[in-house]
Amino acid sequence: MSIDPNILIVIAVLVVLLATASLVAGWVNRIWSWPAFAALIIGVVILGFLHLSVIPGGLGPHDLPMAFIHVAAMVLN
Hints:
Blueprint: H1 5-28, H2 34-54, H3 63-76
């Protein structure tokens, strides 16, 4: 059983967004957060893996919002 690519997209986007926010906060305080940097790299690698090998034709601009809608529909059902 494999995990749904939409779930991976949502997880990776949320990790990238939270890691970016943490890096910006650390930059303002002049403190480098290595765990946030590692999380950013992991999120980008997951998105790259999905783009290159899991989703046929790669990720398009409409795939990110549709993934969030799909995951929200799965949770609400």
